Amino acid sequence: MLTDRERYDLLTSFSMIPDSEWRKRLNAAEYHVLREGGTEPPGVGEYTNTTTEGVYSCRACGAELFRSSEKFSSHCGWPSFFSPADSDAVIERTDTSLGMVRTEILCASCHSHLGHVFAGEGYDTPTDLRYCINSICLTLTPAGEASSPQEI
């Protein structure tokens, strides 16, 4: 038997939100990338070239994902980071779509698709990793401003 708290946690978990609710919360383009694993076209995202100091959060649930201090210019057409804000912020899983093997990155909080991570590309970063993230998946809170958590 579940306690009241366990029942509340189950009912309010982002992973338990039905598809119909995600469609209400996200616009069509956001839904396609975040919930269907799509990719926005290169070079069009609002955060691709931004240098604003701050925190990048998941557009679907508001979880902190990346910080501007880990962002670098890879000239790939999407925002690139060499590390997530916290090792528990993202989930990695194997993606074999499009005839190749890649490592997909998901938000650990709501399991929304964010992009992919690539290793060994030779970028001069502390990790030699490139987290290639769709801008449409992110919300930037500039340094000094408080972010507001998403309601479940």
Automatic annotation (TrEMBL):
Protein name: peptide-methionine (R)-S-oxide reductase
Domain of life, per lineage: Bacteria
SUPFAM superfamilies: Mss4-like (SSF51316)
UniProt KW NAD keyword: no
Broadest EC class assigned to this enzyme: oxidoreductase
Keyword tags: Oxidoreductase
Record-level GO cellular component terms: cytoplasm
Entry-linked PANTHER family: METHIONINE SULFOXIDE REDUCTASE, METHIONINE-R-SULFOXIDE REDUCTASE B1
GO molecular function list: peptide-methionine (R)-S-oxide reductase activity
Keyword Cell division: no
All copies of domain MsrB, residue ranges: 19-143
InterPro entries listed in its UniProt record: Met_Sox_Rdtase_MsrB, Met_Sox_Rdtase_MsrB_dom, Mss4-like_sf
EC number: 1.8.4.12
Secretion signal, residue range per the UniProt entry: none
Catalytic activity line of the entry: L-methionyl-[protein] + [thioredoxin]-disulfide + H2O = L-methionyl-(R)-S-oxide-[protein] + [thioredoxin]-dithiol
GO biological process: protein repair; response to oxidative stress
